[in-house]
Specification:
heterotetramer; A alpha/beta; B mainly alpha; C alpha/beta; B: two-stranded antiparallel ribbon; 2 strands; C: alpha/beta; 6-stranded parallel β-sheet; 6-stranded mixed β-sheet; 9 helices; 12 strands; elongated; binds adenosine-5'-triphosphate; binds magnesium ion
């Protein structure tokens, strides 16, 4: 465990005199010796080999990216590095010396930091307290939070990570929380930093800021391991790239010798279409009409403010916007999960539904893919077939006077799993053991099977790997061809640009512009998302 | 010890075990339904006591078993409405709200008893009903098929609960809101309504359990249940939220209790140790919980209020 | 019932002292040759300073050769029932079922053992069973006497009562006490705490009564032990009931109403000897000596009160005083 | 009514309220520490009863208050070790494990009492200690500064708990493991160790609470606490996990009880209603829970076992 007193970064690793036997002797490593090396790592879970004979290394001053589909074993490998899992076979070397990391404290002592896929922060503690957790103190039973705060300010300044140490974490935005995570690692003077999907929840602007910080860190000689499903980020940031598939290393490359398409093929094992084809479709009548919709958010502010849009049959209307500008509330209000303010109107195929509950709206042809698939979209403990049934288990097809018809259900689910290419051992497998992309396919299968008239689809491919994303996109296009009106909400600008017929930009609860996708540019939409109002180039 | 193994004694012990298991089984099945929907109810014991006192009062006043059973059931339902309002409508913390219900049931049943009845008068007991043919079988006939109607009902409820939870749409909704209320909500299943009904079923069963207890004993006294309702909640964990497992637990518990009683009566367990033998239930419960703790997963949303924004 | 009547044709193994069914194995004729075999089943501990202790002491006071078996602390009815049945099957001649709540089990068991005498209380009737005797106290009488004594020693004329729930046996005592004290010019504040067992609440009730000027206290039910402590702490005299409570304080317990069940037990056993196995209910009262108001000889003013005590008791016995029951 | 407002009566009511509040406050402060670390302990009442009987036994045997208090405290710590092993080491479900502890404490304290003491004998009561100068103040002197040492201790523990939770490193760890044990774990804070210690502190306080109760009364009997420990758990919610709020709740509770008694004594509350007034605590608890349910957030990881895979 570290002492709280500032110690100069990088140089003397064990300078504070704390006994840390796992840390190799302080002799200066030659640049040829990797900072961290994994040799022949194998990790098995019941029924799954998450990592098989994986070798991997990071050198000082470089970003080494780990790439792979959902469930390829990236997080598992990193959790081994950080002492959260113990490998079954293989060894870990730090600066050429074998090291045993059996718990996070060991990893921290060895100057390894990790920014986890899901934030590891205590929301009710202040930034300073979050940083100080687990540190020793030279003030007896008290923690010297002033000292911690001072040092946080120092680190913030040096790395451009502005954040107020005295504020409680729950008040911070997602981007700020990300910065706190990095500060935590820097405070402990991490020379190796693991970032597991750090950009999955960031806005484009925040991603740019983060990359600047990360480059600054490598310039100081730290080594970074980076994980992301977004290929343009990977191309932009990486020095080296290693691809994992089914727990094995399937390739090594560097950005200059590869392309996004080639990386995708390495990951999935076949050619992947990164931009979906959009066949021309005749635009139909408006099927979803939203008039003067206002909705309050969780904190009581007006999250959706007087929004009016129509979505036509055979159209995908993309809603672009920086997270937290009312997109979630908009989707939930349409789905019937959030009560709108008076005088708001929502209609589906001409029928006013704003007073109806979710069940009724679904009967009128609404389908809804929520943004957090494991929290709101599927029941992890239920089998695949039960999740597939949840919407229409009360319908005459599968249910006779309250009793379920298991024969019909089995037949139906088997067919869906086949049609949507869900990778699952059986339809009775618990859904939680599927990869994120496959869970998303189950949800899409369930929502699309009834042939919806209106589809509200939030973040359909967040955290989903390339192969699954391609499939999900093709399904959205198929719905468009069938005449469904789709409201697509996504923070992934490429996704919105690639799929939408029209793009509505949402800022501060309002639709600030609706742009025809033929006229939309990445930069133009980006400016609108940031609240800069410009005349759309054409109408 | 050899005396223990005479046929008649064995039959008596099994019969007694089944009888003792009845209120546990009824209460635990009800709690299973509630917990499957994500609602922990630690007030079962209190509900049982209330139902017991009302059923007792009804049987004393009218001598009518149907009326007594009906009133006991109704008391359970009424307490269920109260608990559902507290936890589902107001989202109060379930653990401690249940204890509130328990304390209320304990206190109010005693109060009602003292004011309306006063001294514990013997009341008619629910008569045994011998099941034709089956009750004539050797051994099992007397041990298993010569009980009162509520005992039979308890065991009939086992397959009924399996069926309810596993085969009906309502049962699927119950499991869905117990595992992931957010997802169920987004699919149009009303979390509040489903949990409300599950709580009513659970409390109605607790009411029946209290009724079965008091109509078997033919007497009421303060704290009649002696923590029986808490053991029933523990049996739900023991049975891993499966009705058949719960039944196995209740029977095990009843048979152990009956055997201990028999051994005490025979003098095999000396009187001096009988106090210690009385601690067995609590100890057994904890041991079972420890052993079983990690084997099965509780409903993921158990005891978590669901508040839609 | 878990017994197996009709199955006693089955073997009775080894030298066991118990046969499978007891209905035909009465030991009544043997009484002359040995001690009377008795048993008692009681809900609380035999040294509880109250209900159960009073009965055990009464049996000891019976001056007969008795072989007594005790099962105490059987608060759970089912367990008590098992014990009652076991004693009956064992052939015990007289079984005391000390607890109203056991009446239901008794009604089931007694007819199966027509040769056994069951003594059940407190109860005012025998449920029509002719091998059951019942017993109960007329606690209002001792209450009245103690009320008179309390009025006599109260300087302020303000007397406090710590009651449990306003129901059952406790009410008879408290109402008698109230009338006795009021008839003699005192004011009585009665507080029912709402609980038979909350010692802390009883203690605070005593505090509140004293704060409001009470200078003599009494109370009924098992939670009063807390109140006695407060009385002692504040040097306030205390009147007890159900058992001699002078063990709680030699100095401040003035008198206790004590139950001497032996008076009625004696009568019941005599009837049994004469061939009547039950069918009658007996009350203990001041007249038959079953209720005794025991002065605490160590209480400083004990001697001065003796005359008032004797006078009041005489008045109740000859009917010139109405206790209000 | 006017009589209620005489100075001496007011002083007596306040003094009585403070006295009644003491065991609630001690137990609730301890439970606050435990819950802040993410551990719900519904066994407080049982722990209090065990400590009470041991402290009572010690004072009867030795007459030494320090020894009695020490033994009461120690009993709490021992029960804490047991509870911590069950819930932290074996990850058993906290709600029902706590009930197991409660049932055990209830049963075992009675058993120990019967075997070792038998008859309720009067024991010395903890003497009142008048605080020099302060106790001479008019009104407040008698109401607030003429109590026994454990009462003072209870109120001194309020700022101490604030300090422990808010200012010390250990307190920060407690709050961290109660809100996000995974995060604390990833920084090398041992969740198990922190929770273990928090449980020990909580149970030691429960032990003190039982000791304070029995040494104030000078007598023991079965189920001495009458559900006091459960009310203490409810007060933690009531006080929104802040020691000062918990103190306010305990005082409110004590003062309400004292006032009700006073009004009963004066006859302001008619005798016919006195039984119903006795239900007030349970009802008040539930009402408070409903009203306060949504105002404050419980520690996010409350009652969730932490298992690192
Ligand atoms: N704790 C665990 N127990 C059992 N199996 C696990 C566990 N953690 C991971 N797995 C399995 O190990 C495999 C690799 O999972 P891992 O989390 O490393 O994937 P990943 O590459 O990080 O995927 P993603 O892109 O979705 O984050 C998967 O098949 C997963 O099901
Ligand atoms: N205990 C487990 N048992 C089985 N599979 C697991 C377990 N824990 C995780 N997994 C699986 O491991 C894979 C990766 O899990 P992880 O938690 O790293 O990310 P994830 O759930 O895919 O989240 P995201 O979609 O945001 O990347 C998923 O397929 C997940 O379902
Ligand atoms: Mg991952
Ligand atoms: Mg992932």
């Amino acid at each position: 465990m570290h002492d709280i007193t500032p110690n100069t970064p990088s140089s003397d690793a064990t300078g504070n005199g704390m006994p840390s036997p796992e840390v190799p002797s302080p002799e200066v490593p030659s640049p040829e010796v990797p900072l961290l090396e994994l040799r022949g790592i194998t990790k098995r879970f019941p029924g799954v080999i998450a990592n098989q004979d994986v070798s991997f290394d990071v050198r000082s001053g470089e970003v080494h990216t780990l790439l792979g589909e959902n469930g390829a074993g990236k997080s598992t490998l990193m959790k081994i590095v950080f002492g959260l899992y113990k490998q079954d076979e293989g060894e870990v070397l730090l600066r050429g010396q074998p090291i045993s990391i059996s718990c996070p404290a060991d990893a921290i002592a060895a100057k390894i930091g990790m920014v986890h896929q899901h934030f590891m922060l205590v929301p009710t503690l202040t930034v300073a307290e979050n940083v100080a957790l687990g540190l020793g103190s030279n003030r007896g039973i008290l923690t010297d939070l002033e000292l911690v705060s001072a040092r946080i300010n120092e680190i913030s300044e040096r790395h451009g990570l502005s954040v107020d140490p005295a504020v409680e974490v729950w008040r911070l935005s997602v981007g700020e929380r990300q910065r706190v995570e990095i500060i935590k690692a820097l405070y402990r003077d991490a020379t190796l930093l693991v970032l597991d999907e750090p950009t999955a929840v960031l806005t484009p602007q925040e991603v740019d800021d983060l990359f600047a910080i990360l480059r600054n860190m490598t310039a100081e000689g730290r080594g970074l391991i980076f994980i992301s499903h977004k290929l343009n980020e990977v191309m932009a940031l990486s020095d080296r790239i290693t691809v994992l598939r089914n727990g094995r290393v399937t390739g090594n490359t560097v950005p200059s010798q590869t392309s996004r398409e080639a990386l995708a093929e390495m990951m999935v094992g076949r050619a992947v279409k990164l931009v979906p084809d959009r066949p021309p479709v005749e635009r139909g009548e408006p099927r979803l009409r939203i008039r003067n919709l206002s909705v309050k958010g969780d904190r009581g502010t007006m999250a959706v403010d007087d929004v009016t849009i129509d979505v036509h049959g055979g159209e995908i209307l993309g809603v672009a916007g920086v997270s937290g500008n009312g997109q979630r509330e908009l989707a939930e209000a349409v789905a019937g999960l959030r009560t709108p303010r008076p005088n708001s109107h929502i209609s589906i195929d001409g029928v006013d539904v704003e007073r109806e509950n979710t069940k009724r709206r679904r009967r009128r042809g609404l389908a809804y893919v929520p943004e957090e698939r494991m929290k709101d979209g599927a029941i992890g403990e239920f089998s695949v077939s039960e999740n597939l049934m949840l919407v229409n288990h009360g319908s005459d097809e599968f249910c006779r006077s309250g009793l379920l018809d298991f024969g019909a259900i089995k037949e139906h689910c088997t067919e869906l799993v086949r049609r949507y290419a869900v990778k699952t051992p059986s339809i009775d497998t618990p859904t939680s053991s599927l990869s994120g992309g496959n869970i998303q396919k189950v949800i899409m299968a369930r929502e699309l099977t009834a042939g919806p008239s209106v589809l509200v689809c939030s973040q359909p491919t967040r955290g989903v790997d390339i192969g699954s994303a391609e499939y999900i996109h093709s399904q959205l296009i198929a719905q468009r061809t069938l005449g469904t009106a789709t409201l697509l909400i996504s923070e992934d600008l490429d996704e919105v640009l690639g799929l939408s017929d029209r793009i509505a930009v949402m800022f501060d609860g309002k639709i600030v512009a609706i742009v025809d996708s033929a006229d939309a540019t990445r930069d133009g939409i980006g400016l609108l998302m940031a609240g800069v109002v410009v005349e759309p180039s054409a109408g | 010890m050899s005396q223990f193994f005479t046929t008649s004694v064995l039959i008596a012990v099994v019969a007694s075990g089944v009888r003792l298991a009845t209120p546990y089984l009824l209460a635990a099945l009800g709690e299973t339904v509630g917990q499957k929907s994500g609602v922990l109810n630690l007030g079962v014991d209190g509900v049982m006591q209330l139902s017991a006192v009302f059923a007792y009062w009804a049987i004393l006043e009218t001598g009518n078993f149907w009326l007594a059973t009906g009133l006991g059931l109704l008391s359970g339902v009424v307490m269920g409405v109260i608990y559902a309002v507290i936890t589902v409508v107001f989202h109060a913390t379930q653990g401690i709200s249940g204890i509130g219900i328990f304390l209320f049931g304990l206190g109010f049943s005693d109060l009602f008893f003292r004011r309306q009845v006063g001294t514990p008068l013997p009341a008619p007991k629910l008569p045994k009903v011998e099941i034709p043919l089956l009750s004539d079988l050797p051994f099992v006939g007397e041990a298993l098929f010569s009980h009162n109607l509520l005992t039979y009902a308890a065991f009939v409820f086992v397959p009924l609960t399996v069926f309810l939870l596993g085969k009906t749409t309502f049962g699927m909704n119950i499991r869905a809101v117990g595992e992931n209320p957010g997802a169920a909500d987004s699919l149009g299943v009303s979390v509040a309504r489903t949990r409300f009904l599950a709580i009513l079923i659970g409390n109605a069963m607790a009411g029946l359990a209290g009724t079965a207890l008091v109509l078997e004993l033919g007497i009421f006294q303060a704290n009649l249940t002696q923590g029986l309702g808490f053991i029933a909640v523990a049996l739900v964990y023991f049975g891993a939220w499966r009705p058949v497992g719960v039944m196995a637990g209740a029977l095990l518990y009843g048979l152990v209790a009956a055997t201990v009683l028999q051994l005490k009566t025979q003098g095999t367990i000396p009187r001096g140790l009988s106090d210690i033998a009385a601690m067995a239930p609590a100890v057994l419960t904890i041991v079972a919980l420890i052993v079983l703790a990690r084997r099965v997963q509780a409903p993921a949303a158990l005891a978590k209020p669901f508040i839609r924004h | 019932g878990s017994s197996s009547e009709g199955s006693d044709a089955n073997t009775t193994e080894g030298g066991s002292d118990t046969t499978a069914a007891g209905s035909d194995t009465t030991t009544a004729p043997d009484t002359a040759s040995g001690p009377l075999t008795m048993a008692i089943v009681a809900p609380s501990a035999s040294n509880d300073l109250a209900f159960t202790q009073s009965m055990i002491e009464s049996i000891d006071a019976l001056g007969r050769d008795i072989d007594l078996a005790v099962t105490d602390g059987t608060f759970v009815v089912e367990e008590a029932a098992a014990a009652i049945r076991a004693y009956a099957e064992e052939g015990r001649e007289v079984i005391i079922v000390h607890g109203t709540q056991f009446g239901g089990s008794l009604a089931e068991i007694a007819p199966e053992f027509p040769e056994t005498t069951f003594i059940w209380g407190t109860a005012t009737e025998t449920q029509g069973l002719d091998n059951v005797f019942a017993y109960y106290p007329q606690a209002d009488q001792g209450g009245y006497v103690e009320g008179v004594l309390a009025a006599a020693i109260s300087a302020s004329g303000n007397i406090g009562v710590v009651g449990p729930v306003e129901a059952g046996d406790a009410v008879a005592y408290i109402n008698g006490f109230d009338k006795g004290a009021t008839d003699n010019g005192a004011t009585v504040s009665i507080v029912y705490t709402g609980s038979f067992s909350d010692v802390a609440l009883a203690a605070e009730t005593a505090q509140a009564l004293i704060a409001n000027g009470a200078d003599v206290l009494t109370g009924s039910a098992q939670m009063v032990v807390g109140a006695v402590g407060v009385a002692v702490e504040n040097s306030v005299p205390w009147f007890g009931t159900q058992a001699n409570q002078s063990s709680l304080s030699a100095e401040f317990v003035v008198a206790s109403q004590v139950y001497h069940w032996e008076v009625v037990l004696e009568e019941m056993l005599a009837l049994r000897d004469a061939g009547t196995l039950g069918g009658e209910a007996f009350a203990i009262n001041l007249e038959n000596g079953g209720l005794v108001v025991e002065m605490n000889p160590d209480y400083p003013g004990a001697a001065d009160l003796q005359a008032t005590l004797d006078e009041t008791i005489a008045g109740i016995i000859d009917g010139s005083i109405d206790t209000g029951a």
